[in-house]
Amino acid sequence: MIEQLRISQLGVIESAELELGSGLTALTGETGAGKTMAVTSLELLLGAKADPAKVRRGAKSAVVEGIFSVPEESAVVERIVQAGGDIESEDGMATVIISRHVPANGRSRSFIGGRSVPTGVLADIAGSLVTVHGQTDQLRLAAPAEQRAALDEFGGEAVARAARTWRDAWGTYNEASDQLQRFTEQAADAARARLAYEALVAKVEEVNPGIGEEAALKQEALALENVEERFSGLSGAAAALSGSDTVDYPALAGIAEAQSSLQSAGESEDVADLAGRLDSAQAELSDIANELADLAAHSEADPDRLSVIYMRRQQLQGLRKALGMDLDQALEEADQARAALEDLGDLEGTRERLAKELSQAQSEMEAAGKRLRAARTAAAKKLSSAVASELPQLALPDATFSISVTESDAPAIHGHDVVKFQLASHRGAPLAPLAKSASGGELSRIMLAVEVSLAEQTHDKHHTFLFDEIDAGVGGRAALAVGHRLAALAATNQVIVVTHLAQVAAYAQTQAVVVKESKEKSAITHVIEVERDERLSELARMLAGSDSETARAHAAELLSTADVAR
């Protein structure tokens, strides 16, 4: 619950402090006095978007601070600690200070437990402490999507679990549908691509070139085309090294003569080193001479082989021209084409598989939809009964409220259901959608009945509710009924109501008045808690517009009636 609210430089409020206790607190005051700013301050503490225009004229910034009291074991305490905030604990209750600083220029800053936090974190933490309902929520409740959301909230974990299963099934169905659609759209292109890949692979495999084959054949052809010059060169080189009939002084003979001469030079380290090097040179030249002689011996003309090489080179050149790429690239492209053909696989088989997956996903989605509809139907029955039991207490004794859950025309992320809140405002009237069958005042009371039912189902005790002029369009006995029901809700929760109706304010344990004081160049708003005679005066003003004896008597009667009713 909120123990204290401090407001500084926000709108018409220069400085205000409001002590809030348990039970029902009524916030009243003249139109334009600044009640809206009081609500705005609470919304800022809950993470609402900050508007620099709301900073009081001439001030550098507006500051709103709230002191909250929550049970130590509350999950919100753990989240505050995780965010780095400090808390104070006493007698099982934790005290948390939340503040919002809104500069006239620049971005606002949020603080929890003395630690600066992003506004999103503030909204996540503080938003669970207070539930706010205003006049716009009446319109919200008339929208089908919001009615569905309210029902799902009331349904709790049973509906939430079924909704999660639905969302998973819905996602799987959409993915399967998209895959089949993409495949269908791409099937014609895939068929054309398959033909192109198959033609490329067939052409390459028909010639079947080897890596580097064309260059090797070119070298072999050059050797065969110049066989005589090759033999002459190889044999002449061999003769120059090892000797022949035409070579009198071969290189190896010169090395042998040099080795013989060194033997007469005596034994020394330098001579021995040179002798070793001559031995190595002799061995190397002897090996070269033998290889040259062997190559020369095998250098024979081979016209048949040369013809085969010419034919093969023509095949390779024809493939290169047909593909417009060199042969090594052609081999690489053929490998890629084979991989692509594997990916394409069996088009018809793939189509059948994707269609089967879609059918399976649809079946699972439909089953999940039925389970979600069953959970919602069960929740609708309970919520309808809970709201119906509230209506007589809200001066709607002859009204009938019902929630229908039917199958929608098309599935969506939220399910396959249409949720309708329906009302028959009097006996004999047919059930009709809430937006069409309820007046403004009736809609306010229906909304209150729904919110009370939701509160009792989904919130722990001691939760804080803020109702901002939800009694618009309500008067007389109905206003008393609204006040009485708010007081009943406040028996286990903290309830703050901003109201223009004395009938509602009379049921509050605490009444605070927003008073605007006009000065020469500005106006200042104060928030003052009123008791006894001051409260009678405020209720009289709300009833008659003036503090007359008749109005005060009526106000006293209201207070007495409210005390008896409580």
UniProtKB/TrEMBL annotation:
The keyword Transcription regulation does not apply. It comes from the Bacteria. Pfam families: SMC_N. The keyword Hydrolase does not apply. Signal peptide: none annotated. May be involved in recombinational repair of damaged DNA. GO terms for biological process: DNA recombination; DNA repair; SOS response. Belongs to the RecN family. Keywords: ATP-binding, Coiled coil, DNA damage, DNA repair, Nucleotide-binding. Residues 2-520 form the RecF/RecN/SMC N-terminal domain. This is DNA repair protein RecN. GO terms for cellular component: bacterial nucleoid. SUPFAM superfamilies: P-loop containing nucleoside triphosphate hydrolases (SSF52540). InterPro entries: DNA_recomb/repair_RecN (IPR004604), P-loop_NTPase (IPR027417), RecF/RecN/SMC_N (IPR003395). NCBIfam families: recN. Residues 271-378 form a coiled coil. One of its GO terms (molecular function) is ATP binding.
